[in-house]
Specification:
18 helices, four-stranded antiparallel beta sheet, about 425 residues, disordered N terminus, alpha+beta, Hypothetical protein af1432
């Protein structure tokens, strides 16, 4: 491991703290990284699970954004150092900058991450990347970065994919980035799903930069790269969009949206200014999974809680949530046209038939279009053929990537478990009457 800059001096590896990680083994941390980790803003990530509510399906999936962030920083260091040794990264100070961006890339995740974030994207148009920027620029993290001589705005530019060096953006945000490299292995380990196992060392050892300055891989690493894509495909279907996992994420998101509508609480921010206030006051350190779980427990025990909220909260706390009534998900090479898709029309028609017999909060539609293989030249990795020509992975003849579906269309209708039998009978009666 290369030394890192500390107040215009280089410190040796011996002066760096080590943390043991269950995926990567010992991870070395520089002084600036350690001081950032010790802030309450970063410590909050110990209480934000990486896979939200996936532990309802995979009991071991209780790992956190904290350990994932350390892993991403570690991988960024390995790759950036290799690229610096090859002359593709300008200085070893930039290696540290890239590690800092990787360390902080998830600092803005909300409680239960992907279960709650759609609420903020849909209501105030803000995602975890923007919250990350707000935290970095308006907290003690900014002070730590400034003290060690690193520009906080440079860090946020890399996280948001707008750094002047395209390579720096690609290392953190592309089809083959350090974020995906870590979470595929880490999520596979904790769920027990072996589909996510990839040859990480082979990928790292064959990473180079092509003549246009884009991230590329030598042709001898193609097999490992193809397996990386296959692992992603299987993990999307088996874990990230597992029917039960999505059901509980949808349930929790609906509950949270109701909480924001019915309650006023400092830890229920409803605007960007509310989030900024949490950051400047420091109370955002308490905005995590454990806080929200405790909030729901108190609501469930409170007799004055509105019936719908209490009913959904009970369903979440006691694992009696949304259950799939109809799943028409499939792989495709084309984008999902929600307005023209016959499956979506059928699901919506079925939901409308059920609305007369079920309450609106007992029904939930989930429609999404997930990219499996990107064909954007800015994010799709290139392959160096014969040591000379750079070709997009998706254009290589003989590669199994050519035959992989480009998208996964998730199309499901959920109902609460307690009314599932009732809903099924209604559907059966309708089918019988139309026969």
């Amino acid at each position: 491991m290369l030394p890192y800059k500390h107040k215009n001096k280089l410190i040796s590896k011996a002066g760096i703290k080590r943390i043991y990680d269950e995926v990567h083994g010992y991870i070395d941390l520089s002084d600036v990284e350690l001081q950032i980790i010790e802030t309450p803003y970063f410590q909050r990530l110990r209480f934000v699970k990486q896979l939200a509510v996936a532990w309802y399906v995979y009991p071991g999936a209780t790992h956190t954004r904290f350990s994932h962030s350390l892993g991403v920083a570690h991988l960024m260091g390995l790759i950036a150092e290799n690229l610096a040794n090859q002359g593709y990264i300008h200085s070893y100070e930039d290696v540290q900058i890239l590690r800092l961006a990787a360390l902080l890339h998830d600092i803005g995740h909300t409680p239960f991450s992907h279960a709650i974030e759609p609420v903020y994207r849909n209501t105030i148009g803000i995602g975890h990347e923007e919250i990350s920027r707000l935290i970095i620029l308006n907290s003690s993290i900014r002070d730590v970065l400034n003290y060690f001589g690193y520009d906080p705005k440079t860090i946020t530019a890399i996280i948001e994919g707008r750094h002047r060096e395209p390579l720096y953006n690609q290392l953190l945000s592309s089809d083959l980035d350090v974020d995906r490299m870590d979470y595929l292995i880490r999520d596979a380990l904790h769920t027990g799903v072996t589909y996510g196992i990839i040859d990480l060392h082979r990928i790292i050892s064959t990473l180079v930069i092509d003549g246009d300055g884009n991230l590329a891989i030598l042709d001898k690493g193609v097999d490992a790269l193809e397996n990386f894509y296959l692992a992603r495909l299987h993990m999307y279907r088996a874990v990230y969009y597992h029917k039960t996992v999505v059901g509980y994420e949808t349930l929790l998101g609906r509950i949270y949206e109701m909480l924001c509508q019915h309650y006023s609480d400092a830890l229920l921010p409803k605007t960007v200014n509310d989030i900024r206030r949490l950051i400047t006051e420091g109370s955002i350190a308490l905005w995590h999974d454990d806080w929200l779980t405790g909030y729901l427990v108190n609501l469930y025990r409170d007799s004055s809680t509105p019936q719908k909220i209490r009913e959904l909260t009970e369903a979440f706390l006691f694992r009696k949530g949304y259950k799939v009534l109809l799943d028409m998900s499939k792989f495709s090479d084309q984008p999902l046209d929600v307005e023209e898709d016959k499956d979506v029309d059928h699901i919506k028609s079925l939901a409308k038939d059920l609305e007369g017999n079920l309450s609106s909060h007992e029904l939930a539609l989930f429609i999404d279009d997930i990219r499996i293989v990107e064909e954007d030249p800015h994010v799709t990795p290139k392959v160096i053929i014969g040591g000379k020509q750079s070709v997009m992975l998706t254009n290589i003849e003989g590669s199994i990537i050519l035959r992989l579906p480009r998208r996964y269309h998730v199309k499901r209708l959920y109902v609460l478990s307690k009314v599932w039998e009732k809903a099924l009978n209604i559907v059966r009666d309708k089918v019988s009457s139309n026969a």
